[in-house]
Design a protein that fits this description.
Largest interface: A-B, 27 and 28 residues
CATH topology of chain B: Immunoglobulin-like
CATH topology of chain A: Immunoglobulin-like
Strand content of chain B: over 45%
Distance between the termini of chain B: 36 Å
Number of domains of chain B: 1
Radius of gyration of chain B: 13 Å
Distance between the termini of chain A: 37 Å
Helix content of chain A: under 10%
Helix content of chain B: under 10%
Radius of gyration of chain A: 13 Å
Oligomer: heterodimer
Largest sheet of chain B: 6 strands, mixed
Number of helices of chain B: 0
Largest sheet of chain A: 7 strands, mixed
Shape of chain B: globular
Number of strands of chain A: 11
Strand content of chain A: over 45%
Shape of chain A: globular
CATH architecture of chain B: Sandwich
């Protein structure tokens, strides 16, 4: 079974530039998550999708961050414009709908903003 | 914000020794999960323990949960160099919507050959 796929793995941009991250969850997983992980810390949830609906985006900085999950499968997370403090690893995860099941994580995208 | 505090922040042991790390959390939980993260990679689920369970085993892993103290421990027995990684506890609160995980800051484990 293929795992969660993310691209790109690494991205270096200058501040004020836009950037987008892509995630393909495990087939059949209805729930998709985007996390932010700063160096030396645990991941923090940005947004959770149930199918194509964003059901928890309370931690997403909406002034510059946006996300979409068209057709309830792949998802894209965008930052526009990027700031120096956005340098971090962006992780995507997926799980089966409901219950308290484990989440399966992708390898992440490491973003460096110069 | 991170709910959990993990102790120690870093741990260095020799191959074959046991490694123990602890996690404390703040709110009442439905379950607690442990994840491993190798350098530059995503997290891998290790084990889930429910709030009504006190101990759980999986291979060389042993997890305990004390809900009265809001704490959990992860024991890795007979460690191997491949166990070198960061280990995170994550909680699902009782009233959490969906499967929202709240992670601790992690314990970085180095197993020296």
């Amino acid at each position: 079974e293929a795992g969660v796929v993310q691209s790109p793995r690494y991205k270096i941009i200058e501040k004020k530039q836009p950037v987008a991250f892509w995630c393909n969850p495990i087939s059949g997983h209805n729930t998709l998550y985007w996390y932010l992980q700063n160096l030396g810390q645990g991941p923090e949830l940005l947004i959770r999708y149930e199918n194509e609906e964003a059901v928890d985006d309370s931690q997403l900085p909406k002034d510059r961050f946006s996300a979409e999950r068209l057709k309830g499968v792949d998802s894209t997370l965008k930052i526009q414009p990027a700031e120096l403090g956005d340098s971090a690893v962006y992780l995507c995860a997926s799980s089966h709908r409901g219950g308290k099941a484990e989440q399966f994580f992708g390898p992440g995208t490491r973003l460096t903003v110069l | 914000s991170q709910q959990g505090e993990e102790d120690p922040q870093a741990l260095s042991i020799q191959e074959g020794e046991n490694a123990t790390m602890n996690c404390s959390y703040k709110t009442s939980i439905n379950n607690l999960q442990w994840y491993r993260q190798n350098s530059g990679r995503g997290l891998v689920h290790l084990i889930l323990i429910r709030s009504n369970e006190r101990e759980k085993h999986s291979g060389r892993l042993r997890v305990t949960l004390d809900t009265s103290k809001k704490s959990s421990s992860l024991l890795i027995t007979a460690s191997r160099a491949a166990d070198t990684a960061s280990y995170f506890c994550a909680t699902v609160a009782i009233k959490a919507a969906g499967n929202k995980l709240t992670f601790g800051g992690g314990t970085r484990v180095l197993v020296k050959p």
